[in-house]
Specification:
Blueprint lengths: L13 E7 L4 E9 L5 E2 L2 E4 L4 H21 L5 E8 L8 H13 L4 E2 L8 H7 L20 H20 L8 E5 L3 H12 L3 E5 L3 H11 L2 E2 L12 E4 L8 H6 L4 E2 L11 H8 L3 E2 L2 H4 L2 H11 L4 H25 L3 H13 L14
Parallel strand pairs: 3-5, 3-6, 4-5, 7-8, 7-10, 8-9, 10-11, 11-12
Antiparallel strand pairs: 1-2, 2-5
Helix pairs in contact: 1-12, 2-3, 4-5, 4-10, 4-11, 10-11, 11-12
């Protein structure tokens, strides 16, 4: 199949395939759109089943970053990188340095940061070979790690969903199922626990589940059972494409709001959620806290209070999307896409974007 006819190809500007035999690196970098600025997106390392799965992921993720940055009011485009391999077994300094070399060949069209399977420490190693890496500023609130900001933004957006769906701002007693309690998911779970929510969790790694159970009093469930729980809200916080014909039919929740990217397997699944009366918080809007944090780090004028205030605008953005969807009868996903496309779709769109607005 030609890359241009791939189902996930969306007029991407550049797709680079990277291989380094000495370190064992196999990676793909995708630049989706740079109308508003250089593409910025995390570098994910994951044990993909095959190369096709990795390509599909990087194409979908890079497109999502374009929409995410536009909705967050940032002068950034969308890009992403994926390294094929198990981060717990195959990640080495040599592999990361080779990745840095490849990123550097793009000359700044793509700026990387940490993501699933990588860390701030890994970004420092990549940074030995390229200047095009972000999320490293020790003076930032979390030492450069954007995960806490991502989790906080999801929490803010989740509260907006609860208020719209149930007309209340208090999360006490809210039953939430979380699929994935890694760096972001665990932090979100803690914020929910502190707000009085009851938690049900699953993860592909048992140690992540054990931590959520022991530290947060969460109830552990199997990976398959997570879709059948009779709870209020489902928070996908792992990999994408978890909302499909099968899982949506099984959901008994009133809302879906989580940190995972590309939660909808296909756009039609947004309508399928709506038909069941399930409010969907568009993923690239609600999980933008991390990219907002990294953006300010990249600008070199990091102010924690300013970053937090910007992240908190995710709540008002979500409310606008929910309201417009209710008024027009469109899905929340379609409303969000239309707003984002208005922002990045024209050559002079960057002149109309206020970084403080979202």
């Amino acid at each position: 199949m030609s890359i241009f006819s791939h189902p996930a190809y969306d007029k991407h500007e550049q797709v680079a395939f990277c291989q380094d035999a000495k370190s064992g690196l196999k990676a793909i970098i995708a630049v989706h759109n740079t109308n508003l600025g250089p593409s910025l997106g995390g570098c994910r390392m994951w044990p993909y089943a095959d190369d096709g799965e990795a390509l599909n992921d990087v194409l979908r993720l890079s497109r999502g970053m374009t929409y995410k940055s536009a909705m967050a009011g940032l002068k950034l485009g969308g890009g992403k990188a994926v390294i094929i391999g198990d981060p717990r077994k195959e990640k080495t300094p040599e592999l990361l340095r080779a990745m840095g070399d490849f990123i550097n060949t793009l000359g700044g069209r793509y700026i990387t940061a940490e993501d699933s399977g990588t860390s701030v420490a890994d970004m420092h190693i990549i940074g030995e070979r390229t200047q095009y890496v972000s999320g490293l500023i020790a003076e930032s609130e979390h030492g450069g790690d954007p995960s806490p900001s991502t989790a906080y933004g999801v929490f803010v957006g989740l509260k907006a969903a609860v208020e719209h769906r149930w007309g209340k701002s208090d999360l006490s007693g809210l039953k939430v199922s979380l699929q994935g309690v890694g760096n972001v998911g665990f932090r979100l779970a803690k914020l929910l626990k502190d707000a009085g929510a009851e938690l049900f969790v699953t993860d592909i790694f048992q140690d992540n589940i054990d931590r959520a159970v022991s530290e947060l009093g969460a109830t552990a469930v199997s990976a398959d059972e997570i879709f059948d729980l009779d709870v209020d809200l489902f928070a996908p916080c792992a990999l994408g494409a978890v909302l499909n014909d099968d899982t949506i039919a099984r959901l008994k929740v009133g809302a879906v709001a989580g940190a995972a990217n590309n939660q909808l397997t296909e756009m039609r699944h947004a309508a399928a959620l709506g038909e069941k009366g399930i409010l969907y918080a568009p993923d690239y809007v609600i999980n933008a806290g991390g990219i907002i944090d990294v953006y300010y780090q990249q600008q070199g004028d990091y102010d924690p209070a300013r970053v937090k205030a910007h992240i908190e605008t995710i709540g008002s953005t979500m409310q606008e999307i929910f309201q417009r969807a209710a008024e027009t009868g469109e899905t929340t996903a379609h409303v969000a896409d239309r707003i984002a496309e208005e922002r990045f779709g024209h050559e002079d769109a960057s002149k109309n974007i206020d970084p403080a607005a979202a």
